[in-house]
Write a structure and sequence with these properties.
heterodimer, A: alpha/beta, eight-stranded parallel beta barrel, about 40% helix, about 20% strand, B: mainly alpha, three-stranded antiparallel β-sheet
Chain lengths: ~280, ~300
């Protein structure tokens, strides 16, 4: 089930986010890593060192693109310059699928550079699904949307977050990048059962899974990507894998970034769940 | 509330500046109480009010964009001082919020804005403008486009005064009133050193930077911000070099570019040919010229 039309029928294993502090290690030591996820916007440029590094990575590793500012959920039209540059990068990386967030972040051409939560309305789902379709048609590769962490809910919402996610992905006929850490963070911030969320996602649409750490404050949890993955998130991951099968999995670590080995070892912890699922499926 | 209206309402609040203590303002962008404004569209929960939930996004926005400004303009921060820089950056971002999908372009309009708002730098206005120009040129040179470098065979049969040479797009040419290249290198050295330094060391470093700014005297310089092996470097050049390169960038033929450069030159006429030859050798060795479209 994990190799599906939403991830280009690939069977990627466990990857990590490609981050600048690790460039030197990766290029000189050439560690064995299943794949790297890049932040598309960091490479949507005309030249220079970032693209030089990326080209060297592409010579040796599989790369998947992950975006942070397509803003499928913004009510305004898509940014054509963004799309043009993104398509150039897609040609360069040959990413089998592309992901970005189910959120908004720009209005009237002004960018917040944040992943702002969607109002869970039918109007928003329709607009968002339409934009996902436009992006996929323009880029000509599968697109998967990622559920975000959130700290606020709106009065206008007409459904739960997972119902909204389902509404969008069905409307767009796109994949899901299921971030189990984000589900956990939002469940704590909004008092819902994270397993209900994971169990409600259409498993056949899961193209990829994200795992990450977060920071707990007195009244809420922030999605900071600066800690190891905690056990409750691993349990959600286990459940997601049980439902979706052996799915491409990626650890995000974006702040207080430890050594490459530490990040990679943390990511590889996912193997115990993937192996157990594979075994269970075999018997 | 429709999607567009909700997003406009939230964005106005999120992009409204924080208070001096880095909290959300009590007054909303619409003029009333922010608590009422937030309650209109954000639900409270058992731990946080609508105001507090919105405040998380308001603070994240400002922390993110101010970090971007600090990262791109460390030199201007030293020139203005940390607090004044932060206040200026807030004012700039209120006038020019990001209109790009990438934070890389956040400072693209800062030079023009500082020019229009001299009050922020006061007596240091020219210094501030120079450092902004240098820091933005650094951003542009870092990831600007590189075309295939010009090879000797590309010039066969085309040499002479009518030759048009194309500069690499990533090359930035600056004429500055202060030697801000030295200042910026000093600031960056300090930033590298302070990664593992004690508080006392950092304080000494900070004082040294302030002194460096205070001591900086006007001195006209011409600078090329360029790349070697994907790293950005600053290279001081002569006025005549600057004028030739500037004219070539404008598409002027070589003969005209050289004529412009030497109009008010103090270089003795008998030395000019050898100087031009030397400059071109250096520029070619640094890969500053690229093939013209007809040749590629």
């Amino acid at each position: 089930m994990a190799a599906n039309r939403f991830n280009g029928y690939t069977d990627y294993g466990i990857g990590i986010g490609l981050r600048a502090p690790h460039y030197q290690h990766i290029l000189t030591r050439k560690p064995v890593v299943d794949w790297f996820e890049i932040i598309s916007e960091n490479f949507m440029i005309d030249g220079g060192r970032p693209l030089h590094i990326l080209d060297q990575i592409l010579e040796q590793y599989k790369v998947v693109q992950h975006g942070v500012s397509m803003y499928f959920g913004s009510a305004e039209k898509l940014n054509r310059e963004h799309l043009r540059r993104l398509k150039e990068l897609v040609k360069r990386t040959k990413t089998p699928w592309l992901t970005d967030h189910l959120c908004w972040g720009s209005v009237d051409g002004r960018y917040t550079h944040d992943l702002l939560p969607m109002p869970y309305t039918f109007e928003a789902a329709r607009i968002t699904a339409q934009k996902v379709r436009e992006v996929r048609d323009f880029l000509e590769i599968p697109v998967a949307v990622e559920n975000v962490s959130s700290y606020a809910e709106y009065h206008v919402s007409e459904m739960t977050e997972w119902e909204f996610l389902n509404e969008v992905v069905e409307g767009a006929d796109c994949g899901i990048l299921l971030d189990v850490n984000n589900i956990y963070v939002s469940s704590q911030n909004h008092n819902f059962d994270p397993f209900t969320y994971v169990n409600s996602v259409p498993a056949e649409r899961v193209a990829q899974i994200h795992i990450a750490g977060h920071s707990k404050y007195r009244k809420y949890i922030l999605d900071t990507h600066d800690h190891p993955v905690i056990d409750p998130v691993w349990k959600l991951y286990e459940r997601a894998i049980h439902r979706a099968g052996h799915t491409a999995t990626l650890l995000e670590w974006d702040d207080s970034i430890p050594t490459f080995q530490e990040v990679h070892e943390e990511a590889l912890k996912a193997n115990r769940f993937l192996r157990a699922t594979a075994l269970a499926t075999a018997v | 509330m429709k999607l567009m209206e909700l997003q406009r309402t939230m964005a106005r609040a999120v992009m409204q500046p924080l208070t001096r203590t880095e909290r959300m303002q009590r007054k909303s962008p619409a003029g009333g109480a922010m608590s009422a404004y937030a309650s209109r569209f954000i639900k409270p929960n058992d731990r946080l009010t609508s105001f507090e939930r919105l405040e998380i996004y308001n603070r994240q926005y400002w922390f993110r964009v101010l970090s971007g400004m600090i990262e791109d303009f460390p030199g201007l921060r030293v020139v203005l001082g940390e607090r004044r820089f932060e206040e200026m950056a807030k004012a700039y971002l209120c006038d020019h919020p990001s209109r790009s999908f990438t934070l890389r372009n956040l400072g693209s309009r800062l030079e023009a804005w500082v020019h229009k708002h001299p009050g922020w730098a006061g007596a240091k206005q020219n210094l501030a403008l120079d450092i902004v120009r240098l820091e933005w040129a650094d951003v542009e040179a870092f990831d600007g486009k590189a075309e295939p470098a010009l090879r000797p065979e590309d010039l066969s049969g085309t040499a002479g005064p009518s030759l048009r040479l194309k500069l690499q797009p990533y090359i930035q040419l600056l004429d500055l009133r202060y030697p801000v290249d030295d200042l910026l290198l000093e600031v960056r050295k300090g930033d590298e050193d302070t990664d593992f330094a004690s508080n006392a060391f950092q304080e000494r470093r900070k004082r040294k930077r302030v002194q460096a700014v205070a001591k900086l005297k006007p001195a006209e310089i011409y600078l090329v911000v360029h790349r070697v092996d994907y790293s950005v470097y600053f290279r001081r050049i002569d006025r005549e070099e600057f004028l030739i390169l500037g004219a070539l960038r404008q598409g002027k033929p070589l003969g005209k570019a050289i004529e412009i450069a030497f109009r008010k030159s103090s270089i003795a006429p008998d030395k000019r040919a050898s100087r031009v030859q030397e400059w071109f050798q250096n520029w070619a060795a640094l890969g500053w010229f690229c093939r013209t479209e007809e040749k590629t």
